[in-house]
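Standup, Tuesday
Yesterday: got the pipeline producing structure tokens again.
Today: sanity-check two examples.
Blockers: none.

Example 1:
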Amino acid sequence: MKNAIPIAIVCLGGLGCAVTPAGGEGEQPLLTSRQRIVGGAVDTAHAYVVGVGNRGRAYCSGTVISRRTVITAGHCYGGLTRVFFGTNLGRRSASVQVETSRRHPGYDPGTLQNDLTLLKLESDAPVQPAPLLRESMGNNGWYIGPDYTFVGYGVSDGVAGTGFGMRRAVTFPILAIGPAQVGGTPGTIDATQFYYQVPAMNTCAGDSGGPAFLVRRGVERHAGVTSFGDDPCTLDGVQARTDYDQISRFIQPTIDEFEADNPCRADGFCEPSCDVGPNLVDPDCADRHCGADGVCALACVSPPDPDCASGDDGAEQ
């Protein structure tokens, strides 16, 4: 790896490992790896998972969580100017300019605590937003045992930063929700993180900022952001939590500020007038549109919404 900064953990940056040294602000990520999600498959189902970066290239992953708001990792912060859409970012991807970005005020570059950044788009995203997990995760059977779906991008040449990769997904359960002693790469995780350890399956360089989705009441919901893991992505990894506590303290207040003029923004309340078809607009209404009603809700997965065309990546035409 051509990393100029000694680190004990590997940040899983979009087109390489994104590292912000202690005391630094807004440094560009280092392009160090060509790896993608390990043990996964090409993904066409999660249109709200996007690439984030600048100058016509992505270097981290992210998720559209409201009409003009994208969530990604705190260590990806700095110079983010554009969000890219599509299964294959190398095929003249549609993109939207970033108006402003905000990193979690409690972000710690040493421990990667509160590893979250929110981006405000200059215009509406051309895809549906993903619903948030608006409940508190705990170390019980509701959250430890069920599968989570991890999604992210890789590249064909991570050093040169050329050749955007395919969006890929992998599914497996998690091991612990912080605070906890977990061993492995982190040793311990704090209350803003959760941890997984699954042989032959992992997130890796190319996935920082990408989501972990958990299905609740038939709808997949954004539960975490890919943060860091072992090198070479064969042992374990850590996600930044995006459940109730982070929503109430950071995510929701920022969405409310970014989209104050949008009555259909993600706010925990379904506004029925927002969704008249053909695609879901208010992510808080997803569970109301999982049947055949003329409104496609991509987040409905158990069972899938019959209004969504099979194989459709959810991008608006």
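Example 2:
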Amino acid sequence: MRICSNSLLELPVLKSVIRKIGEYSYMDPRLKLAAIAIIGFLSLNAEWKILALLTLLVLWGGIRFQVSFFSILKDMRCFILLLLPIWGIRSLTAGMYDATLVCWRIILAGYAGVSLMATTRTWEIRAALRWFFKPIPFIPEKRLSAMISLMLRFLPLILRQSNEISDAQKARGIECRKNPIYRMVRFVLPLTRRTFEDADNLIIAMEARCYCEDRTEPELSHFSRSFRLDNRT
């Protein structure tokens, strides 16, 4: 006797499994990181149909996580403007279609990353990365996870600073300058200087608090909704 797919979904066991998977996808950072890695891998050489499907998937995830779409676009507006020269150069060398796909992939990856940072705490990202790197031999998982988590946390700060610099330059009439190279240099230099200054301040703060790699850190529980800290620490 044949059993259709709809009748299979009505089984109580499968219902509970699907419900649990949905609950974990809201909470566990390991699943979030794995989903972003899969989306990034699939978008490397994807055509517009696959990119459109991945974009809808990321937007749906943002809605389910209650992430404001317009606030993220507002934070990424300077990042999107920086892609315009890339789009122009790529259009001259490979065509407008290929240039649009390249910028689309970059924006999709950036939006997914900002959504991850908006819904996940820093220690959760660090613990999830350490969980992924721990089985790999000859890799210092604590150092690498700390570096990546700090880098991810710097991205919103860089976006905020870029918005502040852009608003300050507009108030000083930077748009009256017709030379795009001059405007780009005047934007990149202060942004780079502020980024390095913030990195130096972070290093000083970590050294003042005696930060080291052998510190006891909280562990993620085994795919729990409540994010319990492991009592073994």
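Quick observation on example 2: The chain is about 75% helix and 0% strand. Confidence is low (pLDDT under 50) at residues 1-25, 224-233.
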